[in-house]
Design goal:
The complex is a heterodimer.
Chain A (H helix, E strand, L loop, with lengths): L2 H6 L7 E3 L2 H6 L6 H8 L10 E4 L3 H14 L3 E4 L16 E4 L6 E2 L3 H4 L1 E5 L4 H10 L2 E2 L12 H7 L6 H4 L6 E7 L5 E3 L8 H4 L8 E8 L1 E2 L3 E9 L2 H13 L6 E5 L1 H7 L13 H11 L4 H20 L2 H11 L3 E9 L2 H16 L3 E4 L1 H8 L8 H6 L2 E11 L3 H12 L4 E9 L3 E11 L3 H22 L17 H4 E2 L1 H12 L19
Parallel strand pairs in A: 2-4, 3-4
Antiparallel strand pairs in A: 1-2, 5-6, 6-10, 7-11, 8-9, 8-10, 12-14, 12-15, 13-14, 13-17, 16-18, 17-18
Helix pairs in contact in A: 3-19, 12-13, 18-19
Chain B lengths: L2 E4 L4 E5 L4 H10 L2 E2 L12 H6 L17 E6 L2 E5 L24 E8 L1 E2 L3 E6 L4 H11 L2 E3 L7 E6 L3 H12 L3 E2 L9 E7 L3 H4 L4 E6 L3 E7 L7 H11 L6 E5 L12 E2 L2
Antiparallel strand pairs in B: 1-2, 2-6, 3-7, 4-5, 4-6, 8-10, 8-11, 9-10, 9-13, 12-14, 12-15, 13-14
Helix pairs in contact in B: 3-4
The chains are: A alpha+beta, B alpha+beta.
């Protein structure tokens, strides 16, 4: 059976079906770092889709779903492909359906009811730009905003950087419209049961999300940011907790642990900037005088590689040293409101609370963060090119358990990788921790094995400490084997629901509780 | 009744068979407040409250019982979700136990999110100032709820901060006035409509049950648990033209759940 030919027979002339090697390779993976590590070591285990469909309308989506259902062909919905857990990896091949051309927007109820209708294909930055033009904001600003879509946000329970002001995506959605496995278009909350929160986070396994009714707010026009120096993580966490439990709604609440404070450079904001990449530039300059540019680049890379090997090759010692050398944490707080009076009043409460126990660093650290808020995601590629593996892990728990979880994960990972963390996405009852880690091994296969060991240690520590395995990256292939830790007994609930919703099991098969193999 | 309190995380864990009033008392005994549970009727248990269709979409800030951690037990399943403020670990399976979902077991215990108890004022906002009410809910995150049989929207303003004082001033400027926060919630059927359809949904005998940043629940009292046809006809008519409207009720019976993930719209 030729999948592409079959689909071309049922789709409109405006739809596109691609079988090119490039497209199939592109849609065989998302931004899950494991796939980079595995590919580097020659173990690129994923299977590409048979073809990629670019529907031009909802009718095309319906036709694709019906065709896949009738032929039992796996169907994987794809947004921006920016996921970092492997949720859109087509483990059984089939059809990848790229939703980005579905970008209708209805803002007619925004002024009267704070409501918009937006289709799944909207790229976050474009959507926010369009809303800003109309004096509105969704308030969803993930660091992937330039390359991720609304459908992806909904399918993975995404969070933006201003979640303490606006909530996560599941706090913004009124109802979801989706195509079910029979090709019917459904709304998630019309009758006496609201199934919206089952579709949200379903990662394509229960239906193809077409769009959603979302709550919007007036776009903020006044921002007030400040930084504070905390003697330790505990002192910063206390201020964060007090602010949220006092009913304040800060836009930004980010506490960097000691080494993340040093690495992020935000603490140094306002001081004269050093030349970027000074060491690498020096090596390159030295080599450039002696050999052709291409060769010089290789020499520089090898030299950087060697330096990192020496430092990151012994992560336990490095982590031990970092904990003792750096003794100050940075807390960034910010408010964003649509009137100056509101912003000033909110800032008075928030900054007053922080200033009672922490040292005020002024506005520069917050402004530095704001200017660079999307940059960090794009700093990883050069490190991977240099031979490192780099990844992030976002977990969450209650305030009572937050420091226990932080120390448990750090302790479990310290022997495998160099690790740092910041605390963000703050609630009255708890918050999330965002770990960033980097490791190095002499060969690519050793790096892959080290990466796997590190994740296994980390996830075991999270489960043992009673935290949630993921706050906003989703499940994908990586966390699926441990899903019952977050939902004890969850599989017994999910299986009958999945069987009823998708009896042919063709909607993103091999995901959530139905993982086909332990990828790690 | 067994119970546990985590004051640092502002949560209480309590049997689901407890009444909402008992949960509120437990919270109060530990300096916490459950004031956001405003639509429970007299003697309603947590089990009943969770099984009733929500009057408003559960939007940020999450003033809703549906933010609870559940412990569910049944012959075929023992389920509980991790105690974290938010997760991204797949579909939120708690939804299977809320409202008229395909309940797979009985909720035994719940961990409810509270907030520290604080002095509050309740201010009634007349319907002709509904834009101010919506703005205040959206910008300040105050709880807005029912006031007896009057048609006014009522906002709870938590005091003790400059931002709360600003919210109060904003409301006062729109003609809001202080009210007594004790009221009863009569059995009713109604419609949760977007603010754009609020004025149209209001009719004689209606009251405002609660309001959020996007929707208002407008209710019609009814004397029997079985919803009279006339009340349902009114609610259906009030929902017409609003693509986001939903029929809701307080202490009334609903048709058995279908278990389907949403309604066919096309």
């Amino acid at each position: 059976m030729n999948v592409a030919a079959g689909l071309r027979g049922v789709l409109s002339d405006s739809a596109r079906v691609s079988e090119t090697e490039g497209d199939r390779a592109l849609y065989s993976r998302d931004c899950w770092p494991y796939l980079n590590v595995a590919a580097r070591s020659g173990r690129h285990a994923v299977r590409p889709p048979d073809c990629v469909v670019f529907p031009a309308s909802i009718d095309d989506v319906v036709a694709t779903v019906k065709w896949c259902a009738s032929t039992g062909t796996p169907l994987v919905p794809v947004g921006g492909g920016s996921g970092v857990a492997g949720a859109t990896v087509p483990v059984l091949g089939g059809v990848a359906i790229d939703m980005k051309r579905l970008d209708a927007l209805d803002t007619s109820l925004a002024a009267s009811s704070n409501l918009i209708w937006a289709e799944a294909g909207w790229v976050g930055a474009r959507l926010e730009h369009e809303l800003t033009r109309q004096g509105l904001t969704l308030g969803h600003f993930p660091s992937s905003i330039l390359c991720s879509t609304l459908g992806g946000y909904l399918a993975t329970r995404s969070a933006g950087q201003l979640s303490s002001r606006h909530g996560k995506i599941e706090d913004m959605v009124v109802r979801v419209r989706f195509v079910d496995a029979h090709g019917e278009i459904r709304d998630s909350a019309v009758g006496p049961w609201d199934a919206t929160q089952l579709l949200v986070g379903s990662e394509g396994a229960l239906g193809v999300i077409l769009g959603a009714w979302l709550r919007v707010e007036p776009a903020p026009t006044h921002r007030r940011y400040r930084g504070y120096a905390c003697p330790n993580v505990h002192a910063g966490l206390e201020v964060m907790r007090e602010a949220m439990q006092a009913g304040l709604r800060p836009a930004v609440v980010r506490l960097y642990d000691e080494f993340d404070t040093y690495i992020s450079g935000a603490r140094k904001a306002g001081r004269p900037k050093k030349e970027p990449g000074r060491l690498a530039a020096r090596i390159k300059a030295w080599a450039g005088d002696r050999m052709p540019p291409a060769e010089a680049k290789q020499v520089a890379l090898r030299a950087a590689n060697g330096l990192m090997s020496r430092s990151l090759g012994g992560p336990l010692a490095l982590n031990f040293g970092a904990e003792r050398i750096y003794d100050e944490c940075l807390l960034i707080l910010g408010v964003e409101e649509s009137t100056a009076e509101h912003a000033d009043t909110h800032a008075e409460d928030l900054f007053g609370l922080a200033g009672r126990s922490l040292k005020d660093l002024g506005t520069a650290p917050g402004e530095h963060w704001y200017e660079n808020r999307y940059a960090v995601s794009y700093k990883m590629s050069p490190l991977v090119t240099a031979g490192l593996f780099v990844d992030t892990m976002e977990v969450a728990t209650s305030w009572e358990n937050i420091e226990n979880l932080y120390h448990a994960v750090k302790s479990a990972m310290a022997r495998h990788v160099f690790i740092m963390a910041h605390f963000s996405h703050v609630y009255a009852s708890g918050c999330s921790i965002y770990f960033t880690f980097a490791g190095f091994a002499r060969t690519d296969d050793e790096a892959r094995r080290a990466y796997v060991r590190c994740w296994e240690a980390a996830m075991s520590a999270v489960v043992a400490a009673g935290g949630s395995l993921t706050h906003h990256h989703g499940v994908g292939l990586m966390k699926a084997p441990l899903l019952d830790a977050d939902h004890r007994g969850g599989r017994a609930l999910y299986d009958p629901m999945k069987a009823a919703a998708d009896p042919e099991n063709f909607m993103n098969p091999g995901k959530l509780w139905h993982t086909v193999e332990a990828f790690l | 009744m067994s119970a546990a309190v985590d004051s640092k995380s502002c949560t209480i864990t309590i049997d689901a068979s407890a009444t909402v009033d008992e949960a509120k008392q437990l919270a109060a005994d530990h300096g916490l407040s459950l004031d956001y549970v405003v639509d429970a009727f007299a003697g309603e248990t947590l089990t009943d409250a969770l099984a009733r269709p929500a009057l408003l979409p559960p939007l940020w800030p999450p003033h809703t019982l549906r933010a609870a951690t559940l412990e569910v037990h049944a012959p075929s399943v023992a389920y509980s979700n991790v105690r974290a403020p938010r997760t991204a670990s797949g579909p939120d399976l708690r939804a299977l136990f809320f409202e008229q979902g395909p309940h797979a077991g009985a909720v035994e215990r719940v961990t409810l999110r509270c907030e520290p108890a604080a002095e509050a004022r309740w201010l009634a906002i007349p319907p002709d100032a509904s834009d101010v009410a919506r703005d205040v809910v959206s910008r300040f995150g105050t709880v807005v709820t029912l006031h007896g049989s009057k048609r006014a929207v009522v906002a709870r303003v938590r005091r003790g901060s400059a931002i709360a004082a600003l919210a109060e001033r904003t409301l006062a400027a729109a003609g809001a006035f202080m009210v007594d926060p004790t009221w009863t919630r009569p059995r009713a059927v109604g419609v949760s409509v977007s603010w754009a359809h609020f004025e149209r949904a209001l009719s004689d005998g209606c009251y405002v049950a609660c309001a959020g940043p996007t929707h208002v629940a407008v209710m019609h009292s009814c004397s029997r648990r079985r919803v009279p046809k006339a009340a349902m006809t009114w609610a259906t008519s009030a929902a017409e033209g609003d693509p986001t409207a939903r029929i809701v009720g307080i202490d009334v019976d609903w048709a058995p759940p279908s278990g389907a993930l949403g309604e066919v719209v096309r």
